[in-house]
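Reading a protein record of the kind used here takes only a little practice. The record below shows the convention in full:
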Amino acid sequence: MLGLRDITNNVYLQKLQMIIRQIFEIKLVRILIAFGVIIGYFLISIQFSSPVGYVTILSIIPIIVVGLLFGMRLGLLFGLLSFVLNSFFVLFIWGYIWNPFIFYLGHIFLVFVGGIVGHTYETLLKLRQEVAKRIELEGDWQMSEAKYRNLWQGSTEGIALHTVCFVDCNRRFAQILV
């Protein structure tokens, strides 16, 4: 059983999630986060002394972040951009690509990762909107049902719903029959 403390913690958790969601809806905040992750990626990549696939492996982090923050199109675009940037980065820092097949195959994979993560993010947003819309419609339907139920039961006239036999009647109709 949930205690009062668990329920209040859940309320605080929901409020915290709502605040975080509102912060991430600000486009400038998302741009700054993505930019910070990309800069961090380049700073960490410089620390590695050999181009043995670390650049390709590490570049998945900013691609996932960009896909999560901006959706499928920018996730794909940044996946393609990471291929160009990493090629330049590896050639500039080390002067050669250690294993071109693995390097290029890894970047093709990264482009797909960017698209898939972005598509998943967009689908999740649409799903949230659909659930919110259905919850709102269900609340409206329940209010409408309660209003007409009160009208039905509170009527001074006897009302009955029947086809071959009685399906439902209000209190007044029941009093008339008795």
